[in-house]
Amino acid sequence: MRSIQRRLSVGLFAVLLVVGLVLAQTGLWLFDQGLRRYFAGNLREEAENLLVAMVRGPNGMQLDEQRLNPAFQRPYSGRYFVIELEKDTWRSRSLWDSELEVPHKKGLVQGLVDGPEEQRLLVFRGHYKRMGQKLRIVVAQDYTPILESFARVQWMGLGAGALALLLVLLLQRLTVRRSLRPLEEVRLQIAQLQQGQRSQLDNQAPEELEPLVEQINHLLAHTEETLKRSRNALGNLGHALKTPLAVLVSLAEREEMVEVVNTFTRRCASAPDCQADSHLGLSERWSDFRMADSLELERRFVAARS
């Protein structure tokens, strides 16, 4: 039979593992969604700043690079933009010779988009109108550092969770041992019962063990009562047989009884069927001898008592 403590440990381990993984993944997902909403607000502000940087030039609308965020000037900095007019397009220098995938719908793109240098980009697209012209501004931010941070947090959480799980299992093991200690005391008391050192178990037991202890004590009391009645019955039987046995012993020691037994033995030896293998024949011969001598034995017994 499997150990109760092992079954409790396995069940607790499975429950804590499942609950811990669900809570950890749910927490990371909620944190990730919160960060994405936060970065979406930043990207929207970047798009509006780019919209302000679009000024009127000698050849029409142009981009004032003096108003740009310096991160847009460094190659592969993780901050990118694309501005589209009907005929013109501006790209950030940070893209270098890479292309930024322009989403089809405005707003924050669901999921991450592949970017240069194996970056994962959070992309926002906004539709604006400047100086009577429609513009499409796409801004992106590298989300890879956040993903790496999440990975580190996951590993750290996994280690901390494993350590906490081991600690909980250890505490649970100690608690179960302490909780089952009354059972060990009951076992010792039963051993004392077997050795005759006590007559019943202690009634002071935990609430969960009280029915068991009471049932065992009831069984012991019932067994003791049965043995007491058996001893009384045997005593009465012995007392009742004492006088007849004494009479029989006295009769057996008389010469008349010895002659009767010898006569009975000689008759059995002289019978032709006394040595037969058939049990039926031996029983019938014994019945004949018993009927013949019963009256004589009875007469002698009555005479001896008188």
List keywords for this structure.
single chain, 306 residues, alpha+beta, Beta-Lactamase, 6-stranded antiparallel β-sheet, two-stranded antiparallel sheet, 6 helices, 61% helix, rod-shaped
Quick recap:
The chain is α+β, with helices and mostly antiparallel strands. It is built from six helices and eight strands, in the order αββββββββααααα.
Question: What would you say this structure looks like, in words?
Answer:
It catalyses: ATP + protein L-histidine = ADP + protein N-phospho-L-histidine. Keywords: Kinase, Membrane, Phosphoprotein, Transferase, Transmembrane, Transmembrane helix, Two-component regulatory system. The structure is a single chain. With 306 residues, the protein is α+β, with helices and mostly antiparallel strands. The chain has 6 helices and 8 strands. Strands 3, 4, 5, 6, 7 and 8 form a 6-stranded antiparallel beta sheet that branches. Strands 1-2 form a two-stranded antiparallel ribbon. Strand 1 (54-57) and strand 2 (60-63) form a beta hairpin. It is rod-shaped. The two termini are 73 Å apart. Mean pLDDT is 80; it is low at 276-295.
